[in-house]
Design a protein that fits this description.
Layout: H1 2-25, E1 47-51, H2 59-67, E2 72-80, E3 83-90, H3 93-103, H4 113-118, E4 121-124
Antiparallel strand pairs: 1-3, 1-4, 2-3
Length: about 140
């Protein structure tokens, strides 16, 4: 029995490693749709971080901009020292990347000053989205 158990564990490890290697080998094709339908975890970033929101910009307006993006799963606006930051989680990495393209540098209609001039900053977040947690 011990021998069989050892084999099973060994097999699991090798199949996991093989899956991982295939995943990395195909990763560059992601934007061409080569891996459409694979799970969104791993290196596929689905969370977008929004910063550089003007101090006097309306939270509702920032929220509406983000909610206008397709495939939004969840969002969280955090206010820290009077500044607004936002995390938005999308159903897949393509939608997250599209939101960055669509929203980065966008000016909110309310606001003024240097932040308003340069527009909001939207980028893929290295931190995965957690609903709840601090600041929510």
């Amino acid at each position: 029995n011990m021998g069989a158990g050892g084999n099973a564990a060994g097999y699991d490890m090798s199949s996991h490693k093989r899956r991982r290697d295939e995943y990395h080998a195909g990763f560059g094709m992601g934007d061409m749709g080569g891996h459409a339908g694979t799970s969104t975890n791993g290196n596929q970033q689905t969370t977008v971080y929004v910063s550089n929101v003007p101090v006097n910009a309306g939270q509702e307006e920032v929220e509406q901009l983000i909610r206008s993006q397709p495939a939004l799963r969840d969002m969280k606006i955090v206010s820290k020292k009077g500044r607004l930051f936002c995390f938005a989680d999308f159903h897949n990495s393509q939608s997250a990347a599209a939101a960055v393209q669509a929203l980065n540098g966008r000016r909110v209609s309310s606001g003024s000053g240097a932040e308003w001039e340069s527009g909001i900053k939207v980028q893929l977040s290295s931190t995965p989205f957690r609903s709840g947690g601090p600041g929510s």
